[in-house]
Amino acid sequence: MAMIRCDFDSEALELSTSMTVVLPDGEGTEPPPVLYLLHGLTDDHTAWSRLTSVERYAAERGLAVIMPQVHRSFYANEAYGMRFWDFLSAELPETVKRFFRVSGRREDTYVAGLSMGGYGAMKWALREPERFAAAATLSGALDLAYIQEHDLRPHMRALVARVFGDRVVAGSDEDLLRLLRDAEPGRLPRLMLRCGTEDHMLAQNRRFVAACRTSGVELDSGFGPGEHVWSYWDAQLPAVIDWLLAER
User: Fold this and answer.
1) Taking the CB of the first residue and of the last residue of the chain, which one, N or C, has fewer CB atoms within 10 A?
2) How is residue 108 annotated by DSSP?
3) Phi/psi zone of residue 27: left (φ > 0), alpha (ψ -120 to 50 degrees), beta?
4) For residue range 130-139, what is the model confidence (pLDDT) as tens digits?
5) What CA–CA distance (Å, rounded) separates 33 from 91?
6) Which residues of 128-146 are buried (b: 16+ CB within 10 A; e: fewer)?
7) Which DSSP category does 201 fall into?
8) 221: which strand partners?
9) Burial (Cβ within 10 Å: 0-12, 13-18, ≥19) of residue 19
């Protein structure tokens, strides 16, 4: 395997940014499948590689892993900031295609993330279902409309105001529960959810499960002992990757 820090210019963000990339050794004749692995609110593109054994898990499965940096953006085009949704959904895959030998086929492309990244993974999968074979969320911040309306902590009020301005999340393309209501279940990638029962995001994850059930969207969901911590996510990651790759 190769572990690469890739610094590159982003037209969408109008600045230089970075991603961490894990690549198989290239011995196979076919380009490897690729997982876009998204970080959480307080992390950066190095978090998965520093705090889990993702490089070893990927090596054992011949998987390329792309870990981009999006700061505290909720993977959105910010009202007072930068166009992180455009960066993620349009520019990043094209940049990866130019720089690295990875598969571009839907059946070989996956997305997953934790916390804010779990939200980003589900948003990307629901808004662009034709891109992914499967998507997974770990301890996801999955009810952003609730966060916008009810999380009254000053730092969260300031963050939500910066990212969304006067835009109302509820009922918009940033609202996962609305995206589920409007989804065509047959067009969606396979979806997976895992969350610890001691996690402060537990209620949001249970609401997402209920919304999938109401909309007829299949979801492999699981809850068990665990908090909002890296030890939980690292323990879950090998099974998540195996589930994502199961139908190859």
Assistant:
1) C
2) G
3) alpha
4) 999 999 999 9
5) 19
6) ebebbbbbbbbbbbbbbbb
7) T
8) 193
9) buried
